[in-house]
Specification:
- The complex is a heterodimer of chains A (about 290) and B (about 270).
- Chain A is of the alpha/beta class.
- Helices cover about 45% and strands about 20% of the residues of chain A.
- Chain A has helices at about 45-55, 80-85, 100-110, 115-130, 135, 145-160, 175-195, 205-210, 230-235, 235-240, 250-260, 270-289; strands at about 5-10, 20-30, 35-40, 60-65, 70, 85-90, 165-170, 195-200, 215-220, 220-225.
- The longest helix of chain A is centred in the last third of the chain and has 19 residues, at about 270-289.
- Chain A is globular, with a radius of gyration of 21 Å.
- Helices cover about 70% and strands about 5% of the residues of chain B.
- Chain B has helices at about 15-20, 20-40, 40-60, 65-70, 75-85, 105-130, 130-145, 155-185, 195-200, 200-225, 245-265; strands spanning about 90-95, 100.
- In chain B, helix 3 runs antiparallel to helix 11.
- Chain B has about 270 residues and is mostly helical.
- The chains are: A alpha/beta (about 290), B mainly alpha (about 270).
- The interface of A and B includes residues 94 and 97 of A.
- The complex binds adenosine-5'-diphosphate and magnesium ion (MG).
- Magnesium ion (MG) binds near residues 46, 47 and 169 of chain A.
Amino acid sequence: MSIQVKNLKHIYEKGMPTESVAIEGISFEVGDGEFLGIIGHTGSGKSTLLQHLNGLLKPDEGTIVIGGVDITAPGVSMVDIRKRIGLVFQYPEYQLFEETVAKDVAFGPKNLGLGEEETEERVKEAIELVGLDYDDIKDRSPFELSGGQKRRVAIAGVVAMRPEVLILDEPTAGLDPKAHKDVLNMIEEVHRRTGNITVLVSHNMADIAKLSDKVLVIDSGHMVTMGTPKEVFSKREELSRVGLDLPPITNLTEELRQRGMDIEQTILSVDDAARQIAEYLKDKGHNKC
Amino acid sequence: MLRDITLGQYFPGNSWIHRLDPRIKIMATLLFIIELFIVDNFIGFLIAAVVLGIIVAVSKVPVSYILRGLKPILLILVFTFALNMFMVKGRILWQWKFLHITAEGLELAVFMAIRLILLLMGSSMLTLCTRPIALTDGIERLLSPFKKIGLPAHDIAMMMTIALRFIPTLLEEADKIMKAQQARGADFETGNLMQRAKSLIPILVPLFVSAFRIAQDLAMAMEARCYRGGENRTRMNEMKFKGRDYAAIVMMLLFAAVIIIESKVL
Ligand SMILES: Nc1ncnc2c1ncn2[C@@H]1O[C@H](COP(=O)(O)OP(=O)(O)O)[C@@H](O)[C@H]1O
Ligand SMILES: [Mg+2]
């Protein structure tokens, strides 16, 4: 399973005076089991791009091949595509509608035509995978849950479909720090356990640096750069030009480097930074003697 | 797909029609509707259609855009057409079992269909060429003489402003919810009537929840800014008739005279 996107272009409200090009000339590849992070400031076209990946929007130009199937070709079954590619929208809690949590999470699996037993098993698995207690929550109304819980139930609704590609559009937007951490851990856990391709859009650079195998940067609908987190976050000026920042820890270590501390370039995790700084200080101590 | 609904939407532009005073446009639309009911022959409709055609051409709104707005009422159009065609008694042209088409029926059906289409196109020109805010300001001004008998003109106008303002917001919201449910495998396009009606539940429930949330937020924001209704409020853009508005009044009256003479006198 892999994704190849070639020269994608999308125009909103084609033929109206308000017509606008949302994305243009986007090309990238994601390999089997990879984790792709997408960054870009608000209005840069991230959500538009994601909606192409499961056929909700049709490109005006370009192709998307997923697992060998060109999903932009006419006559492809959209139902089959959505079976394999799960998309969690921004603020997914607004799509909850059933009387109970279990019924809501079962909506996706039921649409896939699964039987009662299989559905229940998947619902249970998904709810536990997102870190909620199945027996405790399954009969409650989704509308009486807290914001973080609602968000997780909504994500479980997509996870329960066991997609081969899981796409998440700013899944941690507007959450408190604890819920943020929980949701992030959950995404990592689902990715690790199922070995799926995961695509994550986020404004949190630290999360992107931590989880991604590859990072795609877009600005006003165009690709700016793509590469490993290390490659992308080493381009500080380029990122700052399109309104993006480095992860806080990278910012700190770059500042330290500029002030003469001899440590590696583009450190992306706190652990790494701590180790390097400790080593540097130790060396410096030796030199003094 | 939801964005195809153009009925009641504004089409940005800066044409002569766009710049007319909203009061003139509202009155002209009402007059046009009344005239369509006065007309009793096809020549009258032809005149009205030509006038409407000129208005559309001047406004620079694409005809395809206006026609798309007619799509939602296509069903009503077909239904009234069929009803008129089959139900009217008279000279029989064609018969099959209990169904028959009469010459009079056919004529009436075509007549009514033209009237309905002109009616809808005419009234959609009002909203297409007038900013919602200007439209409701115009309504408020036109209703203000009735304030003396206790009509809350400002509140009515405000409610309309808000309703118009939130049509696109709710359509956008519905679009988003629909996509989210489609991503979960929901299917709105196939199945029988019952199944299709049922497939609307996953859209309608979240949509209602959103609508209430938006309404509450708006009410709160208005209260926070001490909104107290129309008493003693002044406005940023005072409405004043300009040369083109007087020209429009003359043309309106001329058109009305032609229609009345054509239908009632000739
Ligand atoms: N349904 C739509 N109709 C018209 N324009 C849209 C629509 N959705 C998004 N846009 C426009 O497309 C651009 C990209 O939006 P989006 O993909 O939502 O960006 P992001 O998710 O990166 O914030 C924006 O300029 C936005 O205004
Ligand atoms: Mg977005």
